[in-house]
């Protein structure tokens, strides 16, 4: 009589599932993720949930402290501070995400092409990056805004054009490793064009560093926009961002401290959330640095 031995096989998991599992174990990263999602939700729903319209002011001009009617007080023109912070979040987050997208598009393509092509093309492209690194980029952006005027589109392009350099170096280093793999050599041997190899095989295999660096670039972009708005070279009135609100709060911080405290807290909380999420993604996507 033949006995049947039934063995239970363990179900395997993909690299993505392992990364998600490690990310969920990181409490700080998950806290940052939920805070970021909350901020994005508030920004998207601001026109529907803001307590006042953006243009609405009190009948009596002058700043008033937080109260039941105005939870975060009003500014010197009698405008509700909570409403202005909520609308400011839309601009600050939009600048952060859009300018980062511009930086990633340029940096990823530049680094991938330089790393894959190698030789003289790589040398020329990376020397160009080194030359741009030597420029004082904050002054460069200031000059652009002074010459061409302040606009949302210019702000996106100017900040994005500054932030792509580091991404280009990171991607080039990753591509130099990936292009030595057998599947890349096979793609070359069957006659695929360099552009198809870069877009279909190389870039998808370096998505980990791209995602991680994106979460670390967004805070730096938001800070740069806040700095420009603080100098009066960023978002122009009547529009406002967290940076412009902080700039206005600094001028009256001794008399009306709530005008500085609340927008600064909003900016700080978002930056911490993005940095915690970026650190968590780095550990989750790199098993060597993750601690199970």
Tag the structure with descriptive keywords:
292 residues, mainly alpha, MetI-like fold
Brief digest:
With 292 residues, this protein is an all-alpha fold. It is built from eleven helices and no strands. The radius of gyration is 24 Å and the shape is globular.
Helix content: 55-70%
The SS-based structural class is mainly alpha
Give the percentage of residues in beta strands.
Answer: under 5%
CA-based gyration radius: 24 Å
CATH class: Mainly Alpha
Q: What does the main sheet amount to?
A: none
CATH architecture term: Orthogonal Bundle
CATH superfamily: MetI-like
Question: Got a strand count?
Answer: 0
Molecular structure report:
The protein has 292 residues and is an all-alpha fold. The chain has one domain (75-285): MetI-like fold (Orthogonal Bundle). Helix content is 70%, strand content 0%. It is built from eleven helices and no strands. It has helices at 15-25, 27-49, 81-117, 119-133, 137-148, 152-178, 182-189, 194-202, 207-230, 242-251, 258-285. Helix 2 (27-49) crosses helix 3 (81-117), helix 3 runs antiparallel to helix 4 and helix 10 (242-251) runs antiparallel to helix 11 (258-285). The radius of gyration is 24 Å and the shape is globular. The model is unreliable at 1-9 (pLDDT under 50).
